[in-house]
Amino acid sequence: MANSDINEAKDELAAVRLRVRVEVRKSFYDLLEAQDELRIHDEHVAIAQQAIAAARIRYTVGQVPQQDLLKAQLELTRLAEHMIRFDRDAEVARARLNTLVGRDPSTPLRVEGDYGVTASLPSEASLEQLALQVRPDLLEAETATAKSRQQQDLAKKAYVPDFAVSAGYMLMPPSSNMRNTYMVEGSMTLPWLDHRKHEAEIATATATVTEQDAELAALRTEAFGQIQESLAEAEAAQKFAALYQNALRPQAEATLHAAVIAYENNQTDFLNLLDSQMQVIDIDLAWLEALADFNTRMADLELAVGAPIDLTGTAVAPATQEEEQ
Asked: Using one digit for the tens of pLDDT, what is the confidence trace for 80-90?
């Protein structure tokens, strides 16, 4: 039973490590997304400034109305609004990540990495099987159940009589007729005389076992539900990211390219060009959001399983403390 207490403490520590690891992963991708959003913002600000300069020239010579110039300036202001939000997201993610790794939240930090959205996801059955082996709260519940069964066995042993045998030797005084004396004693408890107390202890231990079994079954059901939910959300986010990357982004960029050519040849107005550019910006930002959302869902899946999910689509058991060292 003492070993069971030690195992429960180890499982609690593993659960804390798992939560910290998952939060670090989420904060990492939040910061990575914010950095990429700032990069895309800078690229499109340069394009917008060029468009404003072109519109100002055409407005000066009377080729476009003032409305086009004002519209371009408005869209540039909207990009400045995006900049405020992106800076805020980056600062929040940076402070959270520094805090999780035990550093001053104001420490400068820049991350680099890939979103890994093309990874093959593992099967639900393999994730559920691994969760039964490594998920800390399940292991802790199993340890508590085993401990309650040990307590039940211990309560049942109270009905078994305890036997005691003692032996002694005494050196008698010289005036005694017997110089040496030996003594042997035996004793036995009679637990049947206090059967009500023992039956109550056994009933309590049995109820505890039943309760622990029910809690373990409920935890397993909850874990399987979390795995199914996280896996479904990860698959959906992966499909969204693939749709943006393979279809929507190329289509939006082709539309913008065609609008630029048409505008340069006076075949379309400036507002159409501006709308095409803003559409590209919105799709690029939505694509980044889908990429980050996929990796956030993968972190949730890792939390549900209790083990890291590598990029080959297989779940791996976490390293032991000796292996990490």
From this structure: 777 888 888 88
